[in-house]
Write a structure and sequence with these properties.
Nucleotidyltransferase, domain 5; five-stranded mixed sheet; about 10% strand; DNA polymerase, domain 1; alpha/beta; about 50% helix; five-stranded mixed beta barrel; 15 strands
């Protein structure tokens, strides 16, 4: 297939103009990234978004791989001197890999089979004689092939060998195989059953001890669960069809007569189906349904990860991070507005030590000393107790927000090389507390340091194709990072590595250069970084921000290649660029058509104008403080009918998991997400969303909580923490705070 035919095929499939397809493919082939193309090459692509560009990229890759396989197959068959014009035409017309492989199967080098042994005995002509079905003198014909030399002792031996050859020919017939695929897709069932004696070990697979449903109706999560049960030797999994119906379909295609030939072919078909075709198609169906299940699970994971990464940041605030614990105490860290660790200690407000007064004094002292603006508490062990302890500090300034933060993956970060580089002199608990605090300030900047699989928003993530999963999650992280933008002078190398065109090596070079030469004064200064060529600079510059840069647009998403346009706008209006960004009336006077050129069109100019309104704006939502029900801390506090606020922690194909503050997420089944029918939970809820739920069932023994969102109006307001009157505590005077605390306990 020529390149133009390939592009035409993609244009037809995706319903996108050929011109846009061609421009996108050219940019991709030149090394441009998806974020760069979608953001800064709208004129070329016709304003295609990231999803469309990724679809084009994936389809081009698939079709090019198909072409490579087609060429390889043609060469292989031609080298065997078996490439007829008719076969070549069929191969050239094949549009899927399955069809290509079916056509190649009879010519594919294979190990010694019953058919090849029969061919070695010279029985291939007899097999073709029977398949032609023109002469029913089969027994007479078979006698001609009896040979001691070739170990064909009888007519029966000859016919058996012929049938072996026919079995292979039929099982490798492209049309027969396609008919079998369609039959399996239409009628196959998947069955799982328990391996005897594995009841106790396989308790978590109890739902699948005896399970059966239509193969193509089996949802992703169920398919992956059953396959995991099979992998762990708990379940036996079968994919079956009506064998009589399958054999009848083949006979209808192959048998065209009656008599002895038909009898021999019928017997060969039955043998070939059971021995060759059925196992082969079942294996294909297993792979196909696994691939479908993987794709759906990866999409779920990617959607959840995207929501988590783009969660609202609290922003640059001085934060007190707490990693809660009972016996080992609560690790406390103070972070400045840039997330730098200032001080750390341990407090013991809970049993068995219960040093509550001392713990309160430490918290107040840290808050005063470091001008703390928010307290972040990890949601693990002792989380609710620690939250209650903090809220019970009556003289804690009401301006300090108390927020429970997910610590999923924090332990992974704590033990990682990244954490050792950042905090090599501190133990794991300090690193974990820092991570919790930083997550509150900027979830994206902190979560990029953790393997996405460890963040806890996936569905059977360890069972799906790991390469496919990694590529998709990296793609999601990169998309989020570039959508938000990265501050060049404060970003970690992990965050920088996801910026368009950069990667890990160049990210390290940027950090090294920054450490050696100090802060970057402009985007242009990036060109001094080793290995930062013009092409890479073009790809990354627009996504990097320099807050107090030499050029006023360095803090914006306007690409340096477009600075001259804004400068011309300012000149025409007889003002500075700063005045242009600050004065709405000036911007209204800009006539975009005046700045259109051969390479810059209205889409780019509209983006520039939008950016001038609020340079470097963060596209993420504003932060909203949330609090759990203060009367609920553990499962035993729950009862049916209780209405509670919660936060969605994970969305799957079968529902959503919600944290209601009892150390065990509850499940809102898909049937309980709304009053109306829901086909996709993602249409109703997103990870990080604050929701109201009603407890419908509690199984404390199995730690299962069933929740419902039916009849709920989803408008969760944070409950206000207990605070004293403002005059009770002067945040600028730690002595007054400590004195007030001491007086409280004297009373």
């Amino acid at each position: 297939m020529s390149e133009i035919k390939l592009l035409l095929k993609i244009a037809d499939l995706l319903k996108i103009e050929l011109k846009s397809i061609n421009a996108t493919v050219e940019l991709l082939d030149e090394g441009a990234t998806v974020p760069f193309i979608s953001r800064y090459r709208k004129e070329a692509t016709g304003s295609l978004d990231e999803v469309q560009i990724m679809q084009i990229r994936d389809e081009v890759e698939r079709l090019r791989q198909l072409e490579q396989r087609r060429e390889s197959i043609l060469k292989s068959i031609d080298s065997q001197n078996k490439l007829t014009p008719e076969l070549k035409e069929k191969i050239l017309e094949a549009e899927t890999l399955n069809k290509l492989e079916d056509l190649y199967l009879p010519y594919k080098p294979k190990r010694r089979t019953k058919a090849t042994i029969a061919k070695e005995k010279g029985l291939e002509p007899l097999a073709h004689f029977i398949l032609e079905q023109k002469n029913n003198s089969v027994l007479e014909e078979a006698e001609k092939f009896i040979s001691e030399e070739k170990e064909v002792a009888s007519v029966s031996d000859a016919l058996q060998g012929a049938r072996d050859i026919i079995s292979e020919i039929v099982s490798e017939d492209a049309i027969v195989r396609e008919n079998m695929r369609e039959l399996f897709k239409r009628t196959a069932t998947i069955k799982s059953r328990l391996i005897k004696g594995k009841e106790e070990a396989g308790e978590k697979f109890e739902d699948y001890f005896e399970w059966e449903e239509k193969l193509m109706n089996c949802p992703s999560h169920r398919m992956l669960a059953m396959r995991r049960g099979e992998k762990e030797d708990i379940l036996i999994l079968d994919i079956t069809v009506d064998n009589e119906e399958a054999i009848a379909v083949i006979e209808k295609k192959i048998i065209t007569s009656r008599g002895e030939c038909a009898i021999q072919i019928k017997e060969a078909i039955e043998d070939g189906y059971k021995r060759l075709l059925q196992p082969g198609i079942e294996a294909e169906m297993r792979l196909m349904t696994k691939h479908i299940a993987d794709e759906k699970a990866i999409v779920v994971f990617a959607d959840n990860l995207r929501e988590l990464l783009l969660a609202a940041p609290l922003g640059q605030k001085a934060i007190l991070g707490l990693d809660p614990g009972f016996k080992s105490g609560c690790k406390v860290v103070a972070l400045d507005k840039q997330g730098k660790l200032l001080e750390e200690t341990v407090i013991y407000p809970h049993e068995p030590q219960r040093k509550t007064v001392e713990a309160e004094m430490v918290v107040l002292a840290f808050c005063q000393k470091h001008n703390i603006e928010a307290i972040a508490i990890g949601n693990g062990t002792a989380s609710r107790e620690t939250e209650q302890f903090i809220r019970n500090i009556d003289i804690l300034p009401k301006s300090i927000s108390v927020i429970v933060v997910s610590e999923a993956g924090a332990s992974v970060y704590s033990a990682s090389e990244v954490a050792r580089e950042e905090f090599g002199a501190y133990d794991l608990t300090v690193r974990g507390a820092v991570s919790i605090g930083r997550r509150l300030a900027d979830p994206l900047a902190e979560l990029v340091k953790i393997d996405p699989k460890s963040i806890g928003v996936g569905q059977y993530q360890h069972d799906v194709d790991q390469t496919q999963l990694k590529n998709k999650l990296d793609e999601v992280v990169g998309g989020c990072v570039n959508a938000v933008g990265v501050e060049l002078n404060t970003a970690s190398k992990q965050l920088l590595s996801y910026v368009s065109g950069i990667g890990p090596v160049l990210a390290q070079n940027i950090v090294d250069y920054r450490n050696e030469h100090g802060e970057f004064k402009s985007r242009k200064a990036l060109k001094e970084v080793p290995r930062m060529g013009e092409k890479v600079f073009e790809q990354c510059a627009g996504f990097l921000r320099v807050k107090n840069g030499v050029h006023p647009l360095d803090k914006s998403a306007v690409h340096p290649e477009s600075y001259h346009i804004v400068e011309k706008m300012a000149t025409d209006l007889n003002c500075s660029i700063d005045e242009l960004t600050e004065n709405k009336d000036l911007r209204k006077q800009i006539q975009l058509q005046k700045y259109v050129t051969d390479t810059v069109g209205i889409p780019t100019l509209k983006d520039i104008l939008l950016e001038l309104e609020k340079p470097g704006r963060d596209p993420r939502k504003s932060f909203e403080v949330f609090s759990f029900d203060e009367n609920v801390h553990k499962i035993s506090d729950l009862h049916e009918g209780m209405r509670l606020p919660g936060i969605v922690t994970n969305v799957t194909n079968f529902g959503a998991f919600v944290d209601i503050g009892v150390h065990q997420d509850g499940l809102v089944h898909i049937s309980q997400l709304a009053d109306e029918f829901v086909d996709d939970p993602n249409k109703i809820v997103k990870v990080g969303q604050q929701v109201w739920v009603t407890v419908s069932e509690v199984d404390a023994k199995r730690k299962r909580i069933a929740l419902s969102m039916k009849g709920e109006t989803q408008n969760v307001k944070a409950s206000k923490p207990k605070v004293a009157k403002e005059e009770e505590y002067n945040p600028n005077d730690i002595n007054s705070a400590l004195a007030a605390l001491k007086n409280k306990f004297k009373k």
